[in-house]
Amino acid sequence: xxxxxxxxNSKLTIKNSKMIIAPSLLAANPACFGREAxxxxxxxxxxxxxxxxxGLFVPNISFGPAVVKAIxxxxxxxxxxxxxxxxxxxxxxxxxxxxxxxxxxIHVELDGQVESLxxxxxxxGKKVGLAVNPPTPISLxxxxxxxxxxxxxxxxxxxxxxxxxxxxxxxxxQQA
Length: 176
Prior knowledge:
alpha/beta; two-stranded antiparallel ribbon; 5 helices
């Protein structure tokens, strides 16, 4: 579940926010991605969360722009939320934008690249998300909050599906 809070006079207000249902395709059978995207849309999902892993930033590999492009016709109404758990996302931004991504999420752990990546994603006409891993201090996202559309506070370690919720991340969510 993702909340996009509205702000009023620099105060965060959750009561006027719309809850967004964003199932991840990570656990689906790759042979059935199109059918699973259709099923998510029929079930009332708002978004489809697409976890992209390169085997470098995280130890696993998932799928690339060609798969996203193939899924797009099966879920015409869903917002495609592409989470780039990649060490060089700059080479993937344009291919994912062309494949049908509506938003691309990068990681604050990319240090000096974050500002330019945000700018590149916006220049592609896409929404920008910023993710922060469980061990990373939330303070690292502070300089970018006015430049992003979504903040993803990771409550599991990136790169592996089916993990248990890390309860120690709750204070970070409260800080955010």
